[in-house]
Amino acid sequence: MQITSFINIILGLLLAPLLLGIINKTKASFAGRTGQPLLQAYYDIIKQLQKGAVYSKTTSWIFRAGPVVGLSAVLVALAIVPVGGIAAPLAFSGDLLLLAYLLGVMRFFTVLAALDTGSSFEGMGASREVLFSAIAEPAFLIGLAAIARETGIMSLSHMLPAAHFFSPEVVLVVASLLVVFLCENARIPFDDPNTHLELTMIHEVMVLDHSGPDFAFILYSSALKLWVLGLVIVGLIFPSPAGSFWPAPVSTAICGLILLAIIVGIIESLMARLRLLRIPQLLVAAGSLSAFAFILILR
Amino acid sequence: MDSTIEIMMILLLLSDMALLGLSRLRTCISIVSFQGMLLGLLALVTQLGSLTPRLIMIAAASFIIKGFVFPILLRRGIREAGTQHEIEPFVGYITSVIAGLAMLGVSLWLGTKLPLFAAGSGTSLIVPAALTTLFTGLFLIIARKNALNQCLGYIIMENGIYTFGIVSVVEIPLLVELGILLDVFVAVFVMGIAIYHINREFDHLDSDRLNVLKG
To answer: Do A292 and B94 touch (CB under 8 A)?
Structure first.
């Protein structure tokens, strides 16, 4: 276990909300606006942390536990994903399953907290979130299984650097993971993070009742989720050999993440949100890309 | 060169999946046209060492007819019929894509079993891709109601046969290949006329309703 892998976690903790700022800046420049400051997500989180929380009398401890469990799950996930080929501190064989289910635990508690409020809108959002993630999860897992099969390694830290981006299978997996990335982080073809129309919201509608520090936790954990899933994609695109000098691979990975954030911003500027009925189709298409890559590797 | 062929085969398979999953007819026609051009190039790439004028002619004929003539005929069919989407296929789009993956699996298994290609090409994607394209065409003919989609299925099926021909026979006899092309050309032409008449008679392209004509 290296000391540098801890520095990577600290980098993640510090830089994750910056990605949200980059996405928003890209969207603003496409629309010809100045847009919010690059560090807006940090300001929001700090401001929310200084406020008090309001809890409805109908909610139970589950509502209070939701944001805390979500944040802790994504923090563990942060300790699993490698940054630029440097093994993560918690790396072990089979950790890709743990990553998928840590994100699952986070989602499960967000959904429980949303249902706990008893609001019909939040129930609707929870139902959508669960449906879409149920279709996105096979795409994610089959894609990673394809990479694991190709490299013969079951640990994310060693699997991602070992994959060659230029084989067609890996390109297919990356395309599929990009769709999953957009879906899991509630970005535009699936969910509009800025929308406040209850009928179309997915993620935002579930956290409507959280306030103060709880909401800061939710904002921060969704930024970290963006960072963690982004690292998986970037790790596939820029596989750098393990053991090379520390700053080079890490700065490559972080530049890759910034590039990914810009790409997400461009996608959000160019596309409209899909109709809800079309979303499962896109997710199944992503899943079939993963399955296609898996079949190609199995042959 | 082998990796070029592999990439072309993967593109062919991906276009099959797209055809199974998309409902907009105009997009489907563009994808079939892309398939035609891809296969025209494939004939040249597989025989890159020994290009003969005959081969170039076959490739060019297939490139032009499948890549440009069919799409023009089919687009005219759409314009006259005024349909943009397949409304209610027999088999839904998500199910179709999953069926496509199953067909790919079966084709890969068949590709290893065929004694004809046991030597040398056991790991190549060409035979499985050809079989999957063939199955995709058949599946579209069965699973879609719209006459235009069935016509597309016919062309896709021919694409599969063509791919199969490229690997199984090194030098495809000119007459055979031109004969197939001519057949398909005439078929698309006839289907265009049939589509026009179905459309005039019933105000839509739902070939399922032809059953009404039975006494």
So the answer is: no
